[in-house]
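$ ./design --mode recover --in tokens.txt
reading tokens...
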């Protein structure tokens, strides 16, 4: 299909939606963007800022290559969610992206008509829909008795600065649930205010130790060869070895002190989701953890609190669930020729992005090409090649991966029953075997994107070769 024929709806204006919009407009495509929030930003929009949310990696991870971060920002530092949000808004102004976005508009449904090959969103017909719903939905686990609880059970995205301050001032009984990055951020917020709250989780997570990484990068900054040796070593251990032998990669990273945890050291390599903490945070959390950690998980709510799986009862006014925000919980309804399509049963997916029977819908939230804002730009580049290729059902089916469990029921990437790096690399593998990405070039690009302090340019993709099924 050529760009004159294509009409594209983008659902979501987080950094993936923005990146896709930017690349498609530059390539001359017609687009409309629909966003349910009153502004761009997704996770980084103020409505989704829990208190203390910052980017975990370098600030340059949120820098677009064609729009520098403000001069006062140290690109090797973390920046706050508010700074990320402001920067994303400025980027959209700079590229006139606002002209293409309709805000306060929640897309409820996509209707696919197989006769016309069109997808209807908000009464308009499109040849393609890019669905970038991301990670900003708020999903609470279903726990028995939650309705009879007199207090409040909330998702971490509601735990903003004002709420945390009022909980502390009013001396409320709060429980933080979960052990991953969000929980650590919120614990640090309470700790900063000298307020102790029980920290409930089953098993502590492992985090990248930013200080060790920075020190090594600083120490090698004057010596290009040494720096390249160091960055390649980290890449080979964490990504390459992690993809094949996750347990070994985990033990190497642990032995080199690249990863750390705030609680009892354990060997469960699946409790590593690529989150990052600095040395001081790890120290504070370890101290806090030794005093306030409660092992277990909530089995049920009572009127005044919770009962854990080991029978322990805890009183609470507020329970804050830092239990993630996977994309599976907010899937949109899809109809084919007026009949509801059972997306929750789909097992065969092309490139973790397209359901063969719905070739015009591209899902971006299940498998990133990269971390940071460059992910959206990479997506834009790949989608252009995908649209040009106009593959039919047979090719998409032949090239699909068949999953043992339905693809859209489990959030593959942040599922603690598997290893995030292994899954991430597995999802990239078809791009190498089809020739869309070249292994060596990707490796160079990935190292640059991860370790350099300059913003990376987006990946470019080759047209995939159509292959016969073997
Ligand atoms: C707490 C947290 C911290 C994170 N920290 C980092 C980090 O430090 N570095 C990093 O690289 N990644 C981080 N991530 C991952 C992060 O989510 C992504 O990198 C990035 O924000 C994803 O962008 P996105 O555009 O795909 O999704 P989102 O940012 O979630 O944006 C999706 C947008 O789609 C909109 N939307 C959804 N459904 C509809 C609908 N039906 N109709 C209209 N609009 C809709 C939403 O309102 C939202 O604005 C973090 C994630 C979370 C949750």
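writing sequence...
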């Amino acid at each position: 299909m050529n760009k004159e024929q294509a009409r594209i709806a983008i659902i979501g204006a987080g950094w993936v939606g923005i990146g896709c919009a930017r690349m498609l407009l530059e390539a001359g495509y017609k687009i409309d963007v629909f966003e349910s929030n009153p502004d761009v930003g997704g996770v980084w929009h103020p409505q989704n800022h829990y208190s203390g949310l910052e980017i975990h990696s370098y600030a340059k991870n949120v820098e677009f290559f064609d729009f520098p971060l403000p001069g006062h920002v140290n690109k090797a530092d973390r920046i706050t969610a508010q700074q990320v949000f402001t920067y994303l808004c400025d980027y959209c102004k700079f590229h006139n992206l606002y002209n293409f976005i309709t805000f306060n508009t929640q897309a409820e449904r996509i209707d696919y008509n197989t006769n016309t090959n069109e997808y209807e969103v908000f009464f308009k017909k499109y040849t393609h829909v890019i669905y970038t719903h991301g990670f900003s939905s708020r999903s609470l686990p279903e726990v028995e008795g939650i309705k009879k609880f007199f207090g409040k059970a909330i998702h971490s995205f509601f735990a903003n600065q004002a709420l945390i301050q009022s909980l502390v001032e009013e001396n409320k009984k709060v429980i933080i649930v979960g052990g991953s990055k969000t929980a650590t951020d919120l614990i640090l917020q309470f700790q900063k205010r000298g307020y102790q709250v029980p920290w409930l989780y089953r098993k502590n997570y492992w985090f990248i130790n930013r200080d060790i990484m920075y020190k090594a990068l600083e120490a090698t900054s004057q010596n290009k060869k040494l720096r390249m040796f160091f960055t390649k070593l980290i890449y080979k251990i964490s990504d390459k070895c992690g993809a094949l032998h996750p347990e070994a990669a985990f033990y190497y990273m642990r032995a080199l002190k690249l990863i750390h945890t705030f609680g009892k050291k354990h060997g469960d390599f699946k409790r590593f989701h690529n989150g990052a903490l600095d040395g001081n945070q790890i120290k504070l959390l370890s101290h806090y953890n030794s005093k306030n950690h409660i092992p277990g998980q909530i089995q049920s709510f009572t009127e005044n609190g919770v009962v854990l799986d080991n029978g322990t009862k805890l009183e609470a006014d507020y329970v804050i669930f830092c239990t993630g925000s996977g994309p599976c919980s907010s899937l949109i309804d899809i109809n084919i020729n007026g009949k509801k399509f059972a997306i929750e049963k789909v097992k065969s997916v092309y490139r973790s992005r397209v359901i063969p029977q719905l070739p015009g819908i591209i899902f971006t939230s299940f498998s990133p090409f990269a971390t940071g804002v460059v992910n959206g730009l990479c997506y834009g580049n790949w989608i252009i090649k995908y649209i040009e290729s106009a593959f039919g059902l047979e090719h998409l089916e032949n090239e699909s991966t068949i999953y043992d469990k339905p693809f859209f029921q489990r959030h593959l990437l942040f599922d603690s029953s598997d290893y995030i790096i292994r899954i991430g690399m597995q999802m990239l593998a078809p791009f190498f075997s089809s020739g869309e990405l070249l292994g060596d070039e990707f490796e160079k690009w990935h190292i640059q994107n991860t370790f350099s302090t300059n913003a990376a340019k987006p990946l470019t993709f080759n047209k995939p070769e159509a292959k016969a099924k073997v």
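exit 0
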